[in-house]
User: Fold these one by one.
Assistant:
Number 1:
Amino acid sequence: MVTSLVKNQPYILSDEPTQSLVVVCPGRGGIVTEWRTQDQKIFYMDKERFADPALSVRGGIPLLFPICGNLPEDTYTLDGESYKLKQHGFARNLPWQVTQQSGENGASITLALSSNDQTWEIYPFNFELNYTYILRGNTLEMRFSHTNLSQKPMPFSTGIHPYFAVNDKSQLEFDLPSNEYQVKGEQTVNTFSGKFDFNSEEIDWAFINLAKQSAVVTDKSRNLKLTINYDSNYSTLVFWTLKGKDFYCLEPWTGPRNAMNTGEHLLIAEPGRTVETVISMTAELG
């Protein structure tokens, strides 16, 4: 079922048999702000930051497009021209429009974002994004469609930045698709021991050379098993957390930081064509 209590306010996707619900806020970057199953909160949300439109949201699922991560001096070069683009791009900061809703085969909602004068100045392409959220039982599926309406090939990266709620990080167990990672700002490839040092002030690691298209985190303190699946477009899985904060992020990205300059794992939508990517998350309570 899909409901919206007030026009232009959040939409609620619900699945009664599993007591699951997802809250989507189109006007605030198309973000999913909440996901619950059997009264268990899956996502963290900093409500004070969410209430201030001048701040980026910390919580839920911010959407990343047309870059993931940051660029050196927030700058990339394309066809000999330089452009300024802030960390993670602009999709998470712009209002999206609801274009479809459905209660068949799960509760779903599709949001659209189109290029405009504001985006053209920092990303010189005409495009249309259509992102669909589907709640089926305790699984949230996300289908992302990127259409190039320009007359030249459109390079981009896309990803999500989900903030998962956690009460005790020492009770987390990880089954990740790679044991090779790079620390933000460093080129050295390190070997993952299977554990994170949560006494560190910050952990910002990009796992590379992914061997499978899934990652599993088990929160033993809540008997919660979270599985993230993603298609073969996704090359990088970023783990980020801050000491003293009740969240961790596990972020599938199609391309690494600075892909717009390096071309590494950059997706290309040819003129008039659409590139689709898919991510799904399942929350199981044991």
Note: The chain has a mean pLDDT of 95.
Number 2:
Amino acid sequence: MDNPLILPIFQYLKQNKGDKPKPNWKVHEILDSLVKENLLPKLDSSPNKDLFKKNFLIMNALYELQSSLPEDKYLQVHSMDIRLFSSTQTQAQLPDPTDPLRDYYLDWSNYDTSEDKIQQLFDQFWLKYSQYVGGTKEGLSYKEALDVFELPEGATQPEIKRKWRKLALKWHPDREEGDKDKFRIYYMAWSTLRAKATQ
């Protein structure tokens, strides 16, 4: 199956930002750019599946691009650190053939993954990301977590999810106005509130 995003993503990675080329990109930056250019429409009625499918297409295109670039170029693919190198730069290296993410995203049977599996993947991502931004094992009580979210005790799960999305988007460390410490606190509260909902 041909991925129509390969060429637009390659053009995006090559473009200059201001006076100097941007040194690296993140998947969400590429996603935002493709959506703004109307190159990535809504792919599923479920918000989680829609986000997953968009990310899948981007990661698939990146890995396909990585293996089809001319010899004087190398594409490093990590969700938080995507870089296009020339062969003269010392950081350039060959793609890792044992990268499990590469195998996953090049297998089109994973594109239409179930809602439960997607939730499990998101949970794993947020756990790893919490550790990346300095998460701790100290927990919050349910009431403390609601207080952090500034929600009343009777808040419903849809209200809690909406609040989490709003806070995560605002304080995510990858955003220009983001704050690593605030994001970590909100993530801890979200972990507590989500765990209670699954009991």
Note: DSSP finds eight helices and four strands in the chain.
Number 3:
Amino acid sequence: MAALEVLAQHRCHGGWQRVYRHESAVIGLPMRFSVYTPPQADGGPVPALFFLAGLECNEETFMIKAGAQRWAARYGVMLIAPDTSPRGAGVPGEDQDWDLGTGAAFYLDATQAPWAPRYRMESYIAQELYGMATAQLGAVPSRIGIFGHSMGGHGALVLALRHPGRFRSVSAFAPIAAPSRCPWGQKAFSNYLGTDSDAWATHDASALMASSRAPYPAGILVDQGLADRFLAQQLYPDAFEAACAQAGQPLQLRRHADYDHGYYFISTFMEDHIRFHAERLQGAATPEVLADGGA
């Protein structure tokens, strides 16, 4: 397993915020990811949460903007945030559009040239990074959840549905919930997966859920702002809601007046999501209040 190089570390709410770099065997390039380790980890293993960020983001966007460390420290949860794509893969046109290529890999393994050799984010997260989290960071396989925002909300839902044994809990902020129907998803899927609609359906949360039977009986949480400018054209939360109803999947889809698509919205409801996962990953939602007030 690849060695982890610490690029940065900072004390934060009694724990440690770190950025790591490693040589990825799956991607074939160096990759970076961020980890927040809560103070409870000093006493033994803690639950872990993967967060997948949205278009144009990187491994630090969530950690800097979401205010999540405060709640992760309170509830004793490790946070792991990968990058959103390979960097410097040398694919022609990968830096031409903000919604395709660099920063926009859609958390899947591309099957089409010229993307296929490097754009393998599903295998990177669900296999390589997951393995490093359990083997080198102390994450316990039975206590790992996943959540994300926008493109990352799509990624969280899809990876949870495609790898249910790996992720015990799942939630999302404003996910691209039916990418086969929206311009962002159609552009990404046609480039990364080709024109086969059956291949698209295997990476579409609504299509995957519709063919399932209550894969997460403890529920799924989704928050959506009603002032989100991408809501009508890109996100399709109603399609995911209908698919969950068809699958008998418990879903809490909360719609919030006046909230938009950004990190002010995410930070507002961050505690709810971390508490939601903590309840499912460690069996209790009661926070440990730190003696020094660090939470």
Note: The first helix runs from residue 61 to 65.
